[in-house]
Amino acid sequence: MYIWFARLKDFFHYKDLLKQLVMRDIKLKYRRSVLGYLWSILDPLLTMIVTTIVFSSMFKRNIDNFPVYLFCGQLLFNFFRASTSQAMNSINANSSLIKKAYVPKYIFTFSKIISTLIDLLFTMIALLIVMIATGAKFSMYNLLFPIVIFQLVIFCLGVGLFLAQANVFFKDVQYIYNAVMMAWMYLTPIFYPIEALPKIVRDIIVHFNPLYYYIKQFRDIFYIGTFPEIKYIFMGSIMSIIMLFLGIAIFLKKQEQFILHI
Amino acid sequence: MSEKVVIEIENLTIRFNLANQKVDNLKEYIIRLIKKELMFQEFLAIKNLNFQVKEGESWGIIGANGSGKSTLLKVISGILKPYKGKVKVKGSIAPLIELGAGFDANLTARENIYLNGCVLGHTEKYMREHFDEIVQFAGIEEFLDSPIKNYSSGMKARLSFAVATMVQPEILIVDEILSVGDYAFRKKCENRMNEMLSKGVTLLYVSHSLEEIQRLCTHTLWLNKGELKMIGKSKEVCNAYLTEMKRLI
């Protein structure tokens, strides 16, 4: 118990470092790019337009307002992929800081998740644009999106902490990660309706793909405009807490060996 | 001089695994696991070291390359954890361990000063208050807004030193990084360290310059292949070290 209290105190002691690290990421990302912050909005918009052109004719009958349907899934999946891949490299990329002084190491992983979250909030503006452009209906339920984002961020933090420590010891984790991400993307109903899958695959995804829990809730909020299904809020929260717990446990167990490998 | 012990080292042993460091991917790890070739080649960087540092003392640490000097400083700073034994440190530490480490090459000097200060555990507000002092001491006013990657190693060392010493640590740890600075800057640093010593800061100083050690440090620790060779007053230890070195040549 005492050790957790000490850790919490440690975290507050270094909260300004967290802020500096997040600011560094944001600054470096947008410095010297002509379009600046607009990139966070334009980039997903362009991808969405291309994907819409390719896939909308394929699933035209099943999905009305394909752009919003697609965008909801794409937004969350891209956040998942970007935040975890950034988090995976967080320890290696900051090795020079870690070698210099004692710092709680999870701060680096945490800062990557936060800076990607800030990007996500910019991207939400793009979602707004798509909704206006396609004449989608707005509703009060749209304002509930932080519920989903919060679960997803916790989930990503757990996955990120796990990947960050694994990548310190095994550099090929990155390649495995890329392959897994590819499979995961196709196994998540982002650009196709879940009904298009055979029953067995559908059942597996509905029950065992955590990203589906989050995307489903997000679509309930923005695409359908209703309160997200309680079952998925429940499953999503449980999953994110489990993942966070696992991530923290492994990270704390391994962190003292980082210095020998970076 | 006060009798309070600020650094206490008891039976310290630091172990590195030489063999395992080479396996850095999962594929090789699994192959070796199956073949049962996961060897553990032990290397003790520091063996059974005991010593105490009292508040306000200045210690020089000498020894040939690879004798564990930097490792010792890293353990005291909390960067490395001891394999066996205990390290007790009381008070805030400013470690000046690897030159240029802790700077992000793409950020400007201004941004790096804040980042670096926060890495040392200070708040942003604290850094803002001491910002001008740091810039002035490092003498980099003109280059404040250019990225650190355009800085020379001497300039980086100045900035590192300025950030670490401006923030009044209780223990200052310096690992021969000042050797890249020019003469005037080294003198400036020496004065700064002397000033800090007179205010009661504890200093640990690694250097290959015995002259500097004798000027700055009251006590000296001589490490040889991870073991304590000699400990005592700087003059005696430095003389013994010099005699030994001459004998080896």
Structure description:
The complex is a heterodimer of chains A (262) and B (249). Chain A is built from 13 helices and no strands. By secondary structure, chain A is an all-alpha fold. Chain A has one domain (12-261). In chain A, helix 3 (38-55) crosses helix 7 (106-133) and helix 7 (106-133) crosses helix 8. The longest helix of chain A is centred in the middle third of the chain and has 28 residues, at 106-133. By secondary structure, chain B is α/β, with parallel strands linked by helices. In chain B, the strands form 2 sheets. Chain B has a 6-stranded mixed β-sheet, sandwiched between helices. A 3-stranded antiparallel β-sheet of chain B has the order 2-1-4, covered by helices on one side. The mean pLDDT of chain B is 86. The chains are: A mainly alpha (262), B alpha/beta (249). The interface between A and B is medium-sized, with 29 and 35 residues.
Helix coverage percent of chain A: over 70%
Sheet-strand content of chain A, in percent, reads under 5%
Q: What summary fits the major beta sheet of chain A?
A: none
How many domain units of chain A?
1
Judging from the principal axes of the Cα atoms, what is the shape of chain A? globular
Order of helices and strands of chain B: EHEEHEEHHHEHEHEEH
Mean pLDDT of chain A: 91
Helical amount of chain B? 25-40%
Regarding quaternary structure, what we see is heterodimer
Which pair of protein chains has the largest interface, and what are the residue counts?
A-B, 29 and 35 residues
Strand segment tally of chain B: 9
